[in-house]
Amino acid sequence: MKWSEVAIHTTHAAADAVANIFYEAGANGVVIEDSQEPDRERENLYGEIVELDKNDYPTEGVILKAYLPVNSFLIETMKEIELSIAALPSYGIDVGNGEIKTSEMDDEDWATAWKKYYHPVKISSRFTIVPTWEEYTPVASDELIVELDPGMAFGTGTHPTTVMCMQALEKYVRKDDVVVDVGTGSGVLSIGAAMLGAKSVHALDLDVVAVTAAKENVELNKMDHLIQVTHGNLLESIHIEPQVIIANILAEVIVTFSQDAADLLPVGGLFIVSGIIEDKRDFVKEDLLAKGFEIVESVLMEDWVAIIAKKKGA
To answer: Exposed, middle or buried by CB within 10 Å (0-12, 13-18, 19+), for 130?
Structure first.
């Protein structure tokens, strides 16, 4: 299949609105090239493996890229995107340059176009995420190396929401736990749980592309004997009692199955959720409290929130 890469050079203020327009147009993921990224100050708790190359980023603003299938609807879709972006100034949103460029690529190009931005990154005291195309030598004897090829699932394992989930798994997963990973994406959280000693991991995703990518990554890390990856909608297909349920999904989705999580978990079982923007923190917390959970911990990283909740006794 052929894909069209749609790129727009815009302002930081317009980035979220443009990304939303891309998603509404049918994009499965959005790549963001931020001019501020190479100079961004980060906590040096775990350290960066490589420095970012400024030549890979715009000199100002941001460039957002989305990938749409080349089909009979593409021209109409592009017109809708252009009209939606052109309307943003009427809402007080400065789109800056606003130049839109398109280029055509096939499946392989789409899955690899962003790889130059993705390098080994140590994301916790033990976990290092290493893309399959990079060479990496462990620097500690207890280091856990997760090899990852996100493919078209667009899950690199280095987004703040994923990093917080991996750190939570490292802190709370115990040997022989049964873990359920809802919305597994690239499978990185399932792989992390298995490496930490989980007895079994059930990884679920509604996106068939993500399921394929997760299965490949599980096999790549030789964890297929512990991890079962299946196509499923939230917790509908789970009929076992896990000790941990983890979900890196939007806040609005988390609250739709939090009761199912509470019903499945034993007393003391953990529900680890992320993918929550800071403004939605209280919204999710209140829902979890109403469903019989107590909040163990709430973590903030770059405007994203992860919440660790424990099921209370009757």
So the answer is: buried
- Name residue 240's amino acid: I
Q: Looking at the DSSP assignment, which residues form a beta bridge with residue 303?
A: none
Tokens of 146: 């997760």
In tens, the pLDDT along 218-237 reads 999 999 999 999 998 899 89
β pairing state of 293-301 and 304-311: antiparallel
Number of alpha carbons in the 13 Å side-chain half-sphere of residue 240: 11
Task: Between 291 and 80, name the one with better pLDDT.
Answer: 291
Cβ-based neighbours of 304, under 8 Å, separated by 6 or more: 159, 160, 161, 164, 274, 275, 276, 277, 278
Query: Does pTM surpass 0.70?
Result: no
Q: CA-to-CA distance for 271 and 179, rounded, in angstroms?
A: 10
For 109, how many CA atoms within 13 A lie in the half-sphere containing its CB? 13
